[in-house]
Amino acid sequence: MGGTRKLAVLAVSAVVVSVGAAAPPTATTKATAGKVPVAVGYGGAVASVDADASAAGIEVLKNGGNAVDAAVATAAALGVTEPYSSGIGGGGYFVYYDARARTVHTIDGRETAPLSADADLFTENGKPLPFADAVTSGLSVGTPGTPATWQKALDEWGSKGLRTLLRPAERLARDGFTVDETFRAQTAANETRFRYFPDTVKLFLPGGKLPVVGSTLKNPELARTYAELGRKGVGALYRGDIADDIVETVEHPPVDPASGWKARPGKLAEKDLAGYRVELQAPTRTSYRGLNVYSIAPSSSGGTTVGEALNILENTNLSKASEVRYLHRYIEASRIAFADRGRWVGDPAFESVPTRQLLSQRFADSRACLIKDDAVLGSPLAPGDPRHPVPCGRGGKAAPTTYEGENTTHLTVADKWGNVVAYTLTIEQTGGSGITVPGRGFLLNNELTDFSFAPANPAVHDPNLPGPGKRPRSSISPTIVLDRHGKPVVALGSPGGATIVTTVLQTLTGFLDRHLPLVDAIAAPRASQRNAAQTELEPALYDGDLRKRLEAIGHRFKLNPEIGAATGVQRLPGGKWLAAAEKVRRGGGSAMVVNPAP
Ligand code: GLU
């Protein structure tokens, strides 16, 4: 049933793309000039999808800032140059390694549903709303968590003030950035729905047209908003005049009546913004081949799902496995971990989430024993019960899986003291809700569509139904791996909705088990299995010989043109860092270090 629901949702969103859904992912085949996917050197490192954003972080590190300072500056710059993936209208999850204490800390800066929301948030006349109708509406807008995340991270671990750290981004917004092919393609894919909102047209369709590759796109309104946040603090967005503008925009979406688009209003109120709090919480920890893998705990399913799959894979010597066996095991471990995530993970403030048990080796072993070398587990696979692991137990009902958008951005930073940040931030779909806050220069998220719209199967508890002030389940998985001495080995993360989990898992095993250089582990063609009948493959795998060999075991595949856009940093001996990003996906990423090694 869960799979049926998911397919139904996907089908709906696919059909209505031309009338308002965010665009499906497209492959970007050309790397943008001026971007380097790998850099090695001293003094700290930054990896992001964008060269201006990485440069903002490097500028902060050069001026004596630490990794947290640089992460905030990089994120703010991404709000300018990657406004369809991130920004102050959205949320995210921040993972921080403190080199002095050798400890890992996290901030859950996820958007929350309005206090007025209930399980029927996305139903009308007793039926789930079409996905696209929900995306491009005020209904899907959650209280933004990103500004509060920045402030909390700086209060806890930063060394510089927000005002200073917003300056590079403010400059970038005022002076403009160069439009590349990816930006133009993302704008084109959203053009239809962007045209429903005159303020979005003004911002992203200059002169009413698609921005030209190579032209400069300025956002003076965002520059002013950043300046105001710098002056007054992020409180201005939660209680001040920016808060008023957000509430007004959500409650009365500024839609062009001539467009005919029915932009449903949301019920985000002043009290939702004023009451918003990030959660400072312990990371998840999974031991894997003598290392410790730290990531984000629920409300994201990232840490538990990557962690469970790693625990399952620990039963196989992946470094010696053939390519077919490696992929087979990776796909099956992902399938099982997704079956369990669907049943057990939601916002822990509302659901009883067995985080520790999901990450126990005993539970993983009980699930790993389902995997066969010569056959494929069917999907949707029923979940196990981590509270009472039964070896090889199967049966029960599969849990629903929600559709998640595939656009977000991830940045990874290290500083000269050895601190590390892995930070993934999002506005959900590419272009979020498509609604710009008039006069403020940023898009509002549609994060609440990460909730299940309705229980797919009344017989199975769905921990991801909307609720008042609840956080929708995420897949974001910013991850930091430490060695047995508590020193960083590697840190990474990716966008990609639910594929984030598989991208992080595949990249980790590529690097740790298959011993690929980090940049090659990131570049490797991806497969993504999320408890569905078919596993998604990128073209290099889909078109290759490996597919046939996996099909011979029983795997079924479908093509996904592009999965994820990861970045990472790796600690090398002697204070050296390696930053790595995509070679090609999304036009290639940008890796930089403060002082390049000769
Ligand atoms: N909303 C998704 C999540 O939180 C992220 C979307 C994306 O990565 O594109 O899991």
Q: What is the CATH C-level name?
A: Alpha Beta
Principal-axes geometry comes out as globular
Count of domain modules: 1
Number of strands: 20
CATH topology: Glutamine Phosphoribosylpyrophosphate, subunit 1, domain 1
Which hetero ligands occur in this complex? glutamic acid
* CATH architecture call: 4-Layer Sandwich
Helix percentage: 25-40%
Q: What is the C-alpha radius of gyration, as a whole number of Å? A: 22 Å
Poorly predicted runs are 1-31
The description of the largest β-sheet is: 13 strands, antiparallel
Keywords: Acyltransferase, Glutathione biosynthesis, Hydrolase, Signal, Transferase, Zymogen
Family: Belongs to the gamma-glutamyltransferase family.
Protein name: Glutathione hydrolase proenzyme
GO molecular function: leukotriene C4 gamma-glutamyl transferase activity
Description:
With about 600 residues, the protein is an alpha+beta fold. It has a single domain, classed as Gamma-glutamyltranspeptidase, small (S) subunit (Glutamine Phosphoribosylpyrophosphate, subunit 1, domain 1, 4-Layer Sandwich), CATH 3.60.20.40. Helix content is about 35%, strand content about 15%. It is built from 20 helices and 20 strands. The chain has helices at about 1-15, 50-60, 65-80, 130-135, 145-155, 160-175, 180-195, 200-205, 220-230, 235-240, 240-250, 270-275, 300-315, 325-345, 355-360, 360-370, 500-510, 520-525, 540, 545-555; strands spanning about 40-50, 90-100, 105-110, 125, 125-130, 175-180, 215, 280, 285-290, 290-295, 410-415, 420-425, 480, 490-495, 525-530, 535, 555-560, 565-570, 575-580, 590-595. The strands form four sheets. Strands 1, 2, 3, 8, 9, 10, 11, 12, 13, 14, 18, 19 and 20 form a 13-stranded antiparallel sheet that branches. It has a three-stranded mixed sheet with strand order 15-16-17. The protein has a two-stranded antiparallel sheet with strand order 4-5. A hairpin with a 4-residue loop joins β11 and β12. The longest helix has 22 residues, at about 325-345. The termini are far apart. Mean pLDDT is about 95; it is low at about 1-30. The structure holds glutamic acid (GLU). Glutamic acid binds next to loops.
